[in-house]
Design a protein that fits this description.
The chain has 307 residues and is α/β, with parallel strands linked by helices. It has 2 domains: 31-114, Leucine Dehydrogenase, chain A, domain 1 (Rossmann fold, 3-Layer(aba) Sandwich); 140-287, Rossmann fold (3-Layer(aba) Sandwich), CATH 3.40.50. Helix content is 44%, strand content 14%. It has helices at 8-27, 44-60, 75-87, 106-112, 124-131, 140-151, 171-180, 195-199, 237-243, 248-257, 267-273, 285-303, and strands at 4-5, 34-38, 63-67, 93-96, 160-164, 184-188, 204-207, 225-228, 232-234, 260-262, 276-277. The strands form 3 sheets. The chain has a 6-stranded parallel beta sheet with strand order 1-11-8-7-5-6. Helix 2 links the parallel strand 2 (34-38) and strand 3. Helix 2 (44-60) crosses helix 12 (285-303). Bound molecules: NADPH dihydro-nicotinamide-adenine-dinucleotide phosphate (NDP).
Length: 307
């Protein structure tokens, strides 16, 4: 099988370049788009994510603000902080970095974000807009999946699409986005009977389970497009050796770092039987931040009354 790995970094750069021009058009109307990110606590991964978001905003000319209330902040005070951002005209997007400390009621905080500034697309109003295919902000990673398919000219209308994983963050929104692009969609989960058989029917297979290298050749129709959303860090040597038996370069990487990133799709087997596929890292991952920028600009354009 002549398979091809999709370069997610290249697509991210393409979207960021387009975004830069869009930011300039918005700015020419009086002010640049604005994104506020609230980071509570010291989670190292969250700190890196937020730093990257702010840095990407700066590179595009998007006004950005990072708010870091003390980890002891009460739910009510955090909600008031969100409401203040909702009121501010120069802020188009409000993002509360998850996870929040355990004593905070995360759902209530997310509910407080004004739907027209909900750049993560997780507010129930945004979810309703997605399900009914109305204008609204969509979750970033699922949007990235669609961008990857479109920018690689993968036909979606009429295709059989199978999504594995039904989370509110990834699986469900991906399924609805594919449905609105006229795919025939099957949404699978941990109780699906004969998962390999269902997956083998897919022209487009999207894996979002958080199970390292679970999707092997027996799940993949030869020539299918396989999109791997999963990000799993493996630190077990035997598991790494089993997955990367034919990839000494990857095993060397594992030995050097003591761990390695693997998607939900078996990296060696997908390369042998898919048509197009996204690698991990370097596939879907880079798109998430690009789509956050795109959502922030969308929100600004809509709040300014279109561009
Ligand atoms: P969740 O844990 O919220 O959901 C996992 C889903 O997978 C559930 O619906 C679960 O089914 C299903 N599932 C789990 N095990 C199996 C199995 N053995 N067979 C079939 N289905 C199974 O995960 P998320 O949706 O938040 O994330 C999924 C993956 O995507 C993770 O690896 C995460 O790190 C990654 N991710 C990547 C992002 C990116 O930027 N690239 C962004 C967000 C997530 P059930 O409902 O029955 O329990």
């Amino acid at each position: 099988m002549n398979s091809k790995a999709i370069d997610g970094n290249r697509i991210r750069d393409e979207i960021l370049l387009e975004s830069k021009a869009r930011v300039e058009r918005v700015a020419a109307r009086g002010r640049p788009p604005g994104l506020a990110v609230i980071l509570v606590g010291e989670d190292p991964a969250s700190q890196i994510y937020v730093r990257n978001k702010i840095k990407t905003c700066e590179g595009l000319g998007i006004h950005s603000e990072k708010l870091t209330p003390p980890p002891s902040i009460a739910t009510g005070d955090l909600i008031e902080m969100v409401r203040e951002l909702n009121r501010r005209d120069e802020i188009d997007g409000v993002l509360v970095q998850m996870p929040l400390p355990k004593h905070i009621d995360s759902k209530s905080v997310l509910m407080a974000i004004s739907p027209d500034k909900d750049v993560d697309g997780l507010h129930p109003v945004s979810v309703g807009n997605l399900v009914t295919n109305r204008l609204g902000l969509r979750p970033c990673t699922p949007l990235g999946v669609i961008e990857i398919l479109k920018r690689n000219q993968v036909p979606i209308a009429g295709a059989r699409a199978v999504v594995v994983g039904r989370s509110d963050l990834v699986g469900k929104p991906v399924a609805f986005l594919l449905l609105h692009e006229h795919a025939t969609v099957t949404l699978c989960h941990s109780r699906t009977v004969d998962l390999p058989g269902v997956c083998r029917q897919a022209d487009i297979l999207v894996a979002a389970m958080g199970r390292a290298a679970m999707i092997t050749a027996e799940y993949i129709k030869p020539g299918a497009t396989v999109i791997d959303v999963g990000i799993n860090r493996i630190s077990d040597r035997a598991q790494a050796a089993a997955i990367f038996a034919q990839r000494p370069d990857k095993l060397a990487q594992f030995e050097q770092k003591g761990s390695i990133l693997v998607g939900d799709v078996h990296p060696v087997e997908v390369a042998a039987c898919a048509g197009l596929y996204t690698p991990v890292p370097g596939g879907v991952g880079p798109l998430t931040i690009a789509m956050l920028m795109s959502n922030t600009i969308d929100a600004a354009e809509r709040r300014l009354g279109g561009c």
